[in-house]
C-alpha cells in the first residue's frame, strides 16, 4: 500500500469516526419528567445523559481527530516525497 493511499484510508476512517460521533451524540441525551418538590408545584423536565454513549462519543471524537492529523501528515509527506 502506497503512503498516499494509506493517508486516504486514514482520512476516510477519520470521516467515518466523525459521523459515528455525531450519530452517537444525537442519541446521548433525553428528557425525563421530574416529580415536583412540593405539593401543588408543576412537574418539570430534566435532561439526562447516557454515560456509555457519552463515552463512545468522546472516544470517536478523539479517534477522528487523531486519524485526521495522522492522515493529513502522511498525505503531505507523500506529496513532498513525490515532488
Automatic annotation (TrEMBL):
Keywords: Membrane, Transmembrane, Transmembrane helix. The keyword Membrane applies. The chain crosses the membrane at residues 54-75. The keyword Transmembrane applies. It comes from the Bacteria. This is Transmembrane protein. It comes from Mycobacterium branderi.
